[in-house]
Amino acid sequence: MPANRSRSKSLRRGITVIAALPLLALAACGYGSKADDTDTAKVAAGSKKIDGLDSVKIGYFGNLTHATALVGREQGLFQKELGATKADYAIFNAGPSEIEALNSGSIDIGWLGPSPAINGYTKSNGKSLKIIGGSASGGVKLVVNPKKIKSLKDVKGKKIATPQLGNTQDVAFLNWAAEQGWKVDAQSGKGDVMVVRTDNKITPDAYKAGSIDGAWVPEPTASKLVAEGAKTILDESTLWPDQKFVITNIIVRQAFLKEHPKAVEAVLKASVEANKWINANPGKAKTAANEQLGIDSGKELPANVLDPAWKSIRFTDDPLAATLNTEAAHAVKAGLLEKPDLKGIYDLTVLNKVLKAAGESPVDAAGLGTS
């Protein structure tokens, strides 16, 4: 797959994206950092707009666990499939702000973790979104200060960071702590372990300052901490059957799916192409994802962070629906979620159409699909 190299090196280095804005500020720019309007792949001559749309608004995080979106954008795959309909992008730091953007219509389709997807679906009584595809598995680790924590049992009594109250990693850590027999108040984070909710962008600084003893975080934050002297003591994938669990899904506004199925199909086709290319060309894909991260944030990841982070993530079109159900059960157990009715949260019809056309096997919604 030829890379989209039309952007100049100066543009690559010059664009920066506003990060970590409060929600009120985000509202002024669609709840997420808006990409430069000139950042689009070349449109093939004679291309037509899909479903008559001027643009499709796509959201994702500046994380390697969202590399399907990063690579799809960097390689121009979304724009290629959308033809003369512009691929418009917004970058987010947290799931709640992306859900708000989806509900407000500021984005149409997004890459999102399982816990925010579950929360968005249940709080809207099943009316806001559908999960329409998978993207990635794994890429989450418990990393600790090796001077303070020698073994897993030493985590008790320590201060461990998670990205946000009720986010995917927060739920996973609370569940793991409970399985150790430790009691933690989910809301306050206080108990046998102190859970310190910390934005991923400042977690490395918190670690260096000694205000946390470790963190249960996604990549590349985990590898950033290791580069600062932390040690990986647990990879979350080892806690799951076949070492697979959903870390990133693809979601869509239900109204957009109903009104513009061809546009949804185009984005999913680009996503499937991106994952296929990533898995066939891991070295080139790693570079492409990092270059897009550099454009989005103003700084690419150094090799000592990028390389180990990339190795721990698996890219898949399968949404791994059974693990989403398990993650919901963990949130219920932690007291962060009432038992949800997730029936209908998935609509994999379009994805399976795309997979069939590509000669791939269909994926399953584990009983949670649209009937």
Brief overview:
By secondary structure, the protein is of the alpha/beta class. Helix content is 39%, strand content 17%.
Task: Describe the structure using short key phrases.
single chain, 15 helices, seven-stranded mixed beta sheet, alpha/beta, 371 residues
Structure notes:
It is a single chain. The chain has 371 residues and is of the alpha/beta class. Helices cover 39% and strands 17% of the residues. It is built from 15 helices and twelve strands. The two termini are 36 Å apart. Residues 1-31 have low confidence and may be disordered.
Largest sheet: 7 strands, mixed
Low-confidence stretches: 1-31
Please list the strands of the largest sheet in the order they lie side by side.
1-3-2-4-11-5-12
Order of helices and strands: HHEEHHEHEHEEEHEHEHEEHHHHEHH
Distance between the termini: 36 Å
Which shape, going by the Cα principal axes?
Answer: globular
Which percent range fits the helix content? 25-40%
Q: Topology of this structure?
A:
Blueprint: H1 9-14, H2 23-27, E1 33-34, E2 55-61, H3 67-74, H4 77-82, E3 86-92, H5 95-104, E4 109-112, H6 114-123, E5 129-138, E6 140-144, E7 159-162, H7 168-179, E8 194-197, H8 203-209, E9 214-218, H9 221-227, E10 231-235, E11 246-253, H10 254-259, H11 261-280, H12 282-297, H13 303-311, E12 313-315, H14 321-334, H15 349-357
Parallel strand pairs: 2-3, 2-4, 7-8, 7-9
Antiparallel strand pairs: 1-3, 4-11, 5-11, 5-12, 6-9, 6-10
Helix pairs in contact: 3-11, 3-12, 7-14, 9-13, 11-12, 11-15
